[in-house]
Fold:
Amino acid sequence: MPYSYDSQNIFARILRGEIPNKTVLETAHTLAFHDIRPQAPVHVLVIPKGAYVTFDHFAAEASAEEITDFHRAAAEVCRMLDIAPGSGYRTISNAGSHGCQEVPHYHLHILAGKIMGPMLGH
Ligand code: 5GP
Structure:
């Protein structure tokens, strides 16, 4: 079943400028901004500007230019925040109901600034 994209999701509204955000970096195809409910001292969300629902949707259907831009932007965010090279970070991407995805627009969480502990909560 193909993905259907909800253009009223909160990140689509952020991309349209309808809701403010604390931008870390903006590139041609990517926006990175601080999470509104940070789960670590550093908690940045990296999102493509295109209408993709999940990681697999983006990886399967985005153009090579979008995919490169997204990953270069994420790397630049790590460099700007001084977490890589350095003390490190964790990236997470939740997808669908079992992934507990809240916002149906693909996003990469970058978490840092403390020891993250076990990969999954218990
Ligand atoms: P998910 O559970 O979908 O992987 O994560 C969604 C994330 O988006 C959550 O960490 C949540 O705090 C964040 N979030 C939800 N609404 C907003 C918002 O309006 N602004 C920002 N900056 N983050 C948001």
User: Anything to note?
Assistant: Strands lie at 23-26, 30-34, 42-48, 90-92, 108-112. The domain at 10-112 is CATH 3.30.428.10 (HIT family, subunit A).
